[in-house]
Recover the amino acids of this structure.
């Protein structure tokens, strides 16, 4: 059962009070139309669509799933009508440039709306969500001719986009992919191969589907440096941008999955399909990271969405369900009390709340950096934003997707047996959440990206922008309740990084052995800064807040911040001990037999 309500009060807390988006939007031309009243109206409209249209379809999509027949896919009942309403209301064009047919509002505002929609219906939201990455990739790397043909219908939502990366034999090791691209006389290419795990690869929501495909040219060198990037449409597109004849790409089957049943996860077969090169030859992976990074942030958002949805159900249930007698009883005449009065239940609820609201704040901080990097005129500020995005994106994706699994598991546990059956939707949240730590790179791969490719490869330079951010916060709030703890936590992160760098010089396997624990340590540290900042704002607001819902809201922030610092942040002590133990306790393969 879905009783989802968009958490607009908490969203506005981070947008207006913590991150000061009104001032942020006023600082660049694309943001000046996003006045507080416009932002409020957009968020309220997004909430209404999510609560009334998308949320009721979430369980339908899970129960019915997508249907495949002769290469065509039918989405669950109601999905097509919801999508038509979605594009009719202009959601796909919200943050697209005016010159491309968009509404010209900031990317961050579109991201806030996408969070609301994903919380209501994760599987459905993946269809338009992937198109955003396709649009950014084509706009960043394709020729003007391809942009003119493909971008307007994509932005309007009449067409959608996919990312076609992996193959059955390669998994996350894209250097092994075999899909071939043979040049034709007219400048196009003939793409042949098979891709798996393609989200939204085939469906009935749009008139055309544009596949962004990794493939090898005939003269490609082996490995990751021999990959190029192509646009391959489901229906061929003429010079006027009109879709025509069917191309040689079809859905071979649907994957039978643990969750997100409402989204079509496809095996896509390319049989001399006509495609167009949009990257320099053999430089496709660098261009594909435009799409990958967009998707990694989308996955982080899906993770916080699942935590929010599960928490809402668990909190409502815990207030209503009566079992056992609490130590302090509100009504001694009753046989049992609401389970929210039991400390262990509150432990689980506060864990969900701390991760969901902390994840939201992190997501919004990164959305702000995206605006600065994309629209800013100050080169130094843009460089700083880009550096923070580079460091924090793998943390947001990897950490939030891991704690999302824990949080949705708590959601089941709060409801007990009722959480394990379908009626309340908690088991669906857990199943849907599970994919977030896998796709767009597993948690271990995110850890390697963070530790090896970013921090150690830069000799620690990649960490400096975040260190500066936290140091400045501590300088401005020297007497804050968590400033000293935050400073100590930051220094522990720096010390661990130095230790790992020294160990890696002796044995490179130390990096791989430490990557997961290192990423989780980093995630808890980043959320410590997030919660310290939230506590700062809430403390100041309490000085003038009147009795009632507002005072209760800010008090709740302080309670959750305390819980985070005293109950969750200490987990980093175990993580530090674990990663310091090194690779020696991970036996070589024969010892595992």
């Amino acid at each position: 059962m879905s009783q989802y309500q968009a958490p607009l009060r908490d969203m506005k807390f981070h947008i207006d009070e913590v991150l000061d988006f009104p001032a942020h939007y006023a600082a660049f031309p694309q943001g000046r139309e996003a006045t507080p009243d416009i932002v409020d109206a957009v968020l309220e409209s997004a909430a209404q669509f999510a609560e009334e249209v998308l949320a009721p379809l979430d369980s339908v999509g899970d129960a019915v799933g997508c249907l495949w027949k002769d290469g065509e896919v039918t989405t669950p009942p109601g999905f097509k009508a919801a999508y038509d309403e979605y594009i009719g209301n202009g959601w796909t064009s919200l943050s697209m440039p005016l010159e491309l047919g968009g509404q010209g509002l900031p990317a961050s505002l579109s991201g806030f709306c996408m969070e609301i929609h994903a919380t209501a219906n994760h599987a459905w939201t993946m269809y338009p969500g992937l198109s955003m990455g396709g649009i950014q990739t084509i706009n960043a790397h394709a020729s003007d001719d391809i942009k003119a043909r493909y971008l307007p219908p994509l932005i309007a939502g009449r067409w959608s986009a996919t990312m076609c990366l992996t193959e059955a034999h390669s998994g996350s090791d894209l250097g092994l992919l075999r899909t071939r691209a043979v040049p034709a006389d007219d400048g196009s290419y003939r793409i042949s191969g098979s891709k798996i795990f393609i989200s939204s690869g085939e469906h009935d929501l749009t008139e055309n589907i544009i596949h962004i495909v990794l493939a090898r040219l005939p003269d490609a060198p082996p490995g990751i440096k021999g990959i190029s990037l192509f646009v391959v449409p489901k229906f061929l597109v003429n010079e006027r941008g009109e879709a025509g004849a069917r191309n040689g790409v079809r859905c071979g089957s649907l994957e039978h999955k643990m969750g997100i049943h409402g989204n079509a996860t496809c095996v896509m077969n390319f049989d001399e399909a006509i495609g167009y090169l949009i990257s320099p030859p053999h430089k496709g992976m660098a261009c594909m990271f435009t799409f990958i990074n967009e998707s990694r942030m989308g996955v982080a958002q899906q993770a916080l969405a699942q935590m929010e949805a599960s928490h809402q159900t668990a909190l409502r249930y815990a207030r209503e369900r009566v079992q056992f007698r609490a130590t302090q009883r509100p009504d001694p005449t009753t046989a049992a009390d609401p389970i929210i009065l039991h400390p262990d239940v509150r432990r689980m609820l506060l864990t969900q709340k701390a991760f969901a609201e902390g994840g939201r704040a992190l997501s919004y901080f990164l959305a702000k950096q995206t605006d600065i990097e994309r629209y800013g005129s100050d080169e130094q500020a843009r460089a700083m934003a880009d550096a923070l995005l580079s460091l924090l994106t793998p943390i947001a994706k990897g950490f939030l997707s891991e704690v999302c699994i824990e949080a949705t598991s708590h959601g089941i546990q709060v409801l007990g047996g009722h959480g394990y059956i379908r009626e309340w939707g908690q088991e669906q949240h857990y199943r849907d959440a599970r994919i977030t730590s896998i796709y767009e790179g597993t948690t271990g791969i995110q850890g390697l990206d963070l530790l090896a490719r970013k921090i150690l490869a830069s000799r620690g330079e990649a960490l400096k922008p975040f260190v500066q951010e936290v140091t400045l916060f501590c300088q401005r709030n020297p007497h804050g309740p968590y400033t000293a703890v935050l400073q100590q936590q930051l220094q522990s992160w720096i010390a661990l990084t130095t230790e790992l760098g020294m160990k890696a010089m002796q044995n490179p396997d130390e990096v791989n052995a430490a990557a997961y624990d290192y990423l989780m340590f980093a995630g808890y540290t980043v959320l410590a800064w997030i919660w310290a900042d939230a506590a700062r704002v809430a403390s100041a607001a309490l000085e003038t807040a009147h009795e009632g819902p507002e005072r209760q809201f800010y008090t709740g922030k302080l309670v959750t911040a305390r819980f985070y610092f005293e109950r969750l942040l200490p987990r980093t002590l175990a993580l530090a001990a674990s990663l310091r133990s090194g690779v020696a306790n991970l036996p070589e393969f024969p010892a595992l037999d």
Q: What stands out?
A: The mean pLDDT is 94.
